[in-house]
Design a protein that fits this description.
Elements (H helix, E strand, L loop, with lengths): L17 H21 L6 H14 L4 E10 L21 E11 L2 E11 L3 H24 L3 H14 L3 E2 L6 E2 L25 E8 L6 E7 L5 H4 L17
Helix pairs in contact: 1-2, 3-4
């Protein structure tokens, strides 16, 4: 994972620093949690995005490199490319997710997480399943050095085994010192080599098989973290629908 970068799709700029990437990552995930704490039933997606912008400004962000995404309810099934629905309101028993792309000190942070409000057990399970599937897939990358293509085949198998639908229109992407887009790397799920550490965002978006909601989680793939991020060497099984009665 720490081998020199030779593939032009993994090129970085002269100011690139892995430490700076880790800082951007930490700041962005912190922002996701801060924003989630102020989201409440009755709020619209636009109001949540406005609150997110205020929080990011207060944290001293350099700039936003992709639009702020906050999705409520059935909109949690939408992809990044689809616009938010400004008037969509969060219900008292509902799902939402936050997806941020923020530049800190010239480096791109990209983080996303899902949350449920109220007492719907399947919604809570869906949010947790996205996080655990991300961890399971990330550990597979760490241990087996698969290509990006193989990584998403693995994620799909694990999601289906637990009863969730993996959205394969969302397959991860490059990040770097800003802007990564000049490197034309394509998606992580189309990358035919083992992705290097600190350069790729693993995105997981799942859907409930019968109800109109889903969950999203994304984070930076970083080598060397997995033994310390888990309580044991084995990642817990993906939260399965069979744990909750329909």
């Amino acid at each position: 994972m720490n081998s020199p970068i030779h593939d032009p799709r993994e090129a970085v700029g002269s100011v690139f620093s892995l430490d700076a990437m880790l800082h951007a990552r930490a700041q962005t995930m912190d922002a996701v949690q801060r924003i989630a704490a102020v989201v409440q039933p009755g709020m619209t997606e636009q109001q949540a995005c406005d609150a997110a912008k205020d929080i990011l400004d207060g944290m001293g962000m350099q700039r936003i490199w992709h639009q702020i995404i906050v999705r409520f309810g059935e909109n949690t099934l939408k992809t990044f490319k689809e616009k938010i629905t400004p008037e969509q309101t969060l219900g008292s028993n509902d799902m939402f997710f936050i997806d941020l792309g923020v530049v800190w000190d010239g480096h791109e942070g990209d983080a996303g997480d899902s949350f449920s409000v109220g007492d719907d057990a399947e919604m809570a399970a869906c949010a947790e399943a996205a996080r655990v599937l991300w961890q399971q897939t990330g550990q597979y990358w760490h241990q087996h050095r698969p290509s990006g293509e193989e990584l998403y085949r693995y994620a799909q198998t694990q999601a289906e085994a637990a009863g969730w639908k993996l959205n394969l229109d969302i397959k991860g992407h490059r990040v770097s010192d800003f802007p990564h887009a000049i490197y034309k790397a394509g998606s992580l799920g189309s990358f035919d080599a083992c992705p290097n550490t600190g350069l790729w965002i693993l995105e997981i978006q799942i859907a409930h098989p019968t109800r109109p909601f889903g969950a999203f989680y994304e984070d930076l793939l970083v080598a060397g973290e997995w033994p310390t991020r888990q309580a044991s060497a084995d990642v817990p099984a993906v939260t399965a629908l069979t744990q909750h009665a329909f």
